[in-house]
Write a structure and sequence with these properties.
single chain; 420 residues; alpha+beta; Rossmann fold; Immunoglobulin-like; 3 domains; seven-stranded antiparallel β-sheet; six-stranded mixed β-sheet; 9 helices; globular; disordered N terminus
Length: 420
């Protein structure tokens, strides 16, 4: 029964049950008007060349109710369209889910509805590009396995855009998944970044015209030689490109390529141990820190505008690392600025001091945009991640709720710490 018929039926029942001497009941014209508007706005459309999905929710707050309805529609669309499809195809389809019609909220009943649509072009007609993509990434994975020393573990760095150093996003997820599968098929163990004896794989994507080129190199443990492997290229419209504004660039940070070794041969690496290929707000992981000789280490979180927060060591903890240490449980919170976050580790030999920040411990805000120039002889390593909002399609697919959203508190400038 539609909302409009229900309203008219209720009015009819009230009229039939009254006595002759009773006054005529008043008809709530506003309620009937809203019911008519709801019936029209929430009707399911069947437009040509589009597949439409409708979601429903309820709540007194119009914005929240509409947002929940939109997320329900997206979840329904993702579940339907990605069923039986590879992660590669699903990642592409998710990007092409669009809002359809104007969402609606009934202020009388609190009911809300929203629609999303996907062009059938992306459902039915992208087989050739998808097949080419799958073939290309499998070839790249095979080249990496062939270049890595036999019998040794492989440590896979998160793919980045070569122009900016920012995380390669959905393209990186697809390439990483293919490389992991190839390693498993070749009986090559996948190791955390910085594991002694492991070969480190670096993946860099670059755009040119309507193509994206993915380059890879393998660096055996204990050498500074990077062995290049044949690159691949895929259609650029399958993935969002590098806009250069989603992270604090390597060039601004003074860290070309996202890492450098110290003058004494000191190496530091962060293994973020992400809980999922798509990191959503509310996720938790316990990153590891690795060095190749005893060192003192500071770890910063840097947002896309260069604002940096010292997150490790925690108050009362030492910054000394012999070989490896866990940074402890970290809850991922989306930056109000959006974009990508960089985790940056700075390491000096255990007998040396850090300029300016020597006595600092987390959690506090660096007073200036972040650069590594104050520590010219230190080792450094940066890894990027984009924490997705709970209502991002990838997080909707995982069932992340609005309760995962957390507002970052005001953080004092170092050396003062949060809570002091």
């Amino acid at each position: 029964m539609t909302a409009l018929l229900a309203a008219l039926f209720a009015a009819g029942v009230a009229h039939a049950g009254k006595k002759k001497d009773e006054p005529e009941p008043s008809v709530d014209a506003d309620a009937i008007a809203e019911a008519e508007a709801e019936a029209e706005a929430c009707a399911r459309d069947v437009p040509e060349n589009y597949q439409i999905h409708t979601g429903f929710a309820s709540g007194a707050d119009a914005s929240d109710a509409i947002n929940d309805a939109r997320n329900a529609a997206r979840k329904e669309a993702i579940d339907a369209l990605c069923s039986g499809k590879s992660a590669t195809r699903c990642a592409v389809i998710r990007r092409h889910i669009e809002d359809w019609k104007t969402p609606f909220h009934n202020p009388v009943t609190g009911k809300a509805c929203a629609h999303v649509g996907v062009s059938r072009l992306w459902i039915d007609d992208d087989q050739r590009a998808q097949l080419a993509l799958a073939t290309a990434v499998q070839e790249l994975a095979g080249h990496i396995v062939a270049a890595a020393p036999s019998g040794k573990p492989v440590a896979l760095r998160a793919p980045v855009w070569g122009e900016s150093g920012c995380d390669a996003g959905p393209l990186g997820v697809v390439v990483t998944s293919a490389v992991r599968s190839a390693l498993a098929e070749g009986s090559r163990p996948l190791a955390p970044i910085g594991t002694p004896g492991s070969s480190e794989v670096r993946l860099v994507a670059r755009t040119a015209a309507n193509r994206v080129y993915v380059e890879a190199s393998v660096s055996p443990w204990g050498t500074k030689t990077a062995i290049p492997v044949p690159s691949i290229d895929v259609a650029a419209d399958l993935f969002p490109g590098d806009d250069g504004g989603s992270c604090w660039l390597d060039s601004r940070m003074g860290l070309p390529g996202g890492q450098r070794d110290g003058i004494s041969g000191l190496m530091v690496r962060i293994d973020p141990r992400f809980p999922d290929d798509d990191v959503c707000e509310g996720d938790r992981s316990a990153p590891d820190l690795h060095v190749n000789q005893p060192a003192r280490v500071k770890v910063f979180s840097v947002d896309r505008m260069g604002t940096a927060y010292l997150i490790w060591p925690a108050p009362g903890q030492s910054d000394k690392v012999e070989t490896s240490v866990s940074l402890g449980d970290m809850d991922y919170v989306r930056s109000p600025l959006g974009g990508e976050e960089r985790l940056v580790a700075i390491a000096v030999p255990e007998t040396e001091r850090f300029a300016e920040v020597d006595a600092w411990t987390g959690f506090c805000k660096h007073p200036r945009p972040f650069e590594v120039s104050p520590w010219p002889e230190a080792a450094a390593n940066a890894v990027g991640l984009a924490v997705k909002a709970y209502d991002d399609p990838a997080c909707i697919q995982r069932g992340v709720s609005r309760g995962a959203k957390v507002v970052i508190p005001e953080v004092p400038v170092c050396p003062r710490r949060l809570g002091e």
